[in-house]
Amino acid sequence: MSHALQCHVTLLSMRELESRLPRTFATRSARALGVHPRDLYRWRDSGQIVELSRGVFRRTDAPAATFPDLLAVAHRVPGGIVCCLSAAATQDLTDELPASVQIAVPRSSRAPQIDYPPTSAFRFDPGTFELGLSRLEAAPDEWVRVYEPARTVVDLMRLRNRWGDAVAYSALQRYLRLPTARPAVLLDYAEKLGVYGPLRAALDVASAG
């Protein structure tokens, strides 16, 4: 291949990258646009994109992502919802740093196996799966599904045997200090998720203090 033709191929690939692909994308999305996998790995090796997770890439000309691991997992598991400690950490409800990205998937679905970033999947009841669903801006104009703070607190309460009472009670206290705190919503979620008694008791103690 001549030098001129080589330059033409490189420029064509760069234009293709800039005009056709979103800032973060999966291999399947790129292939749907006619991009061959070998082009993806050539762009990766040349530093035009970075691989956030297996088969998930981000353009290096994109703004920095605030939560790149959450963004990567969201592309690996589009129907998943960021939950528990991962959600609490983004909402300033805990100082705990989760060792893995924690996502919820419907109990009827297969739990995803993701090595990087380390990911833990929780299988939740399909009937209440999207209860308290919200979204988080993981990168400028790029959003991931996440449970809102009230649902996060209730999940930490009902799974407190996993991380300890202190984590759940601390999250509850931090939530109640938020200007947007809605204790009635906490109780509604707790009733629907089968943890009304413990949440009611904890709420009474927190309110008395």
UniProtKB/TrEMBL annotation:
Q: Which InterPro entries match?
A: AbiEi_N
Residue ranges of every copy of the AbiEi antitoxin N-terminal domain listed in the record: 14-59
Q: What organism is recorded for this protein? A: Kribbella voronezhensis
What protein is this chain from?
A: Putative AbiEi antitoxin of type IV toxin-antitoxin system
